[in-house]
Design brief:
11 helices; 0% strand; mainly alpha
């Protein structure tokens, strides 16, 4: 019964569509509705319908990510939601903070690496943003193999980024194995 209610609410939110996020008065009620969905699959589906578009401005994206951080328990769905966030939106401090909050909730090193790896290729990821993502990786990724994978995905320009240099060093220092 509860699964049916979650499915109906997710379908309703999909019908409302992402263009509703253009109305600031609808943003909060839409994401409160998302938070009411117990199923991670349906909540991620609803968040995807709202966030996976060009309509969501930074405050709406941040609010959507806070809903994900509060409601998603599945690492797979959390990583999926992070993948929908447009790179340029991560330059906004509120979006970055909410993104990192979702990332911090991911316990699986594999899903954390999946969520982070492609981000480093985006031009928007530099300076404070790069530093914040590397710091999140240092806090959450325990596996030397996955940390090495994350660091290997860094483009050459990241190595010259003075703002992120300390975070890069800290991430490198988490690797204890001689194999990496």
């Amino acid at each position: 019964q509860e699964e049916d209610a979650d499915a109906m609410l997710a379908e309703l939110l999909a019908c409302v569509g992402p263009d509703a996020l253009g109305d600031p008065e609808l943003v909060e009620p839409l994401f409160v509705a998302c938070e009411a969905i117990d199923s991670d699959a349906y909540q991620a589906e609803a968040l995807g319908c709202l966030l996976d578009s060009g309509y969501a401005e930074s405050p709406a994206v941040a609010r959507g990510l806070r809903a994900a951080a509060a409601g998603l328990e599945s690492d797979a769905y959390a990583a999926e939601v992070l993948g929908w966030v447009p790179g340029p939106r991560l330059r906004d401090p509120a979006v970055r903070e909410a993104f990192v909050a979702v990332l911090d909730g991911i316990e699986s090193d594999a899903y954390a690496a999946e969520a982070l790896g492609p981000r480093f290729d985006e031009r928007a990821v530099k300076g404070e943003l790069l530093s914040a993502l590397l710091a999140a990786a240092s806090r959450g990724v325990d596996s030397d193999a996955y940390m090495a994978e994350i660091l290997q995905s860094l483009p050459g320009r990241a190595l010259a980024d003075a703002t992120a240099r300390d975070a890069l060093r800290a991430a490198l220092q988490t690797i204890e194995s001689d194999a990496y």
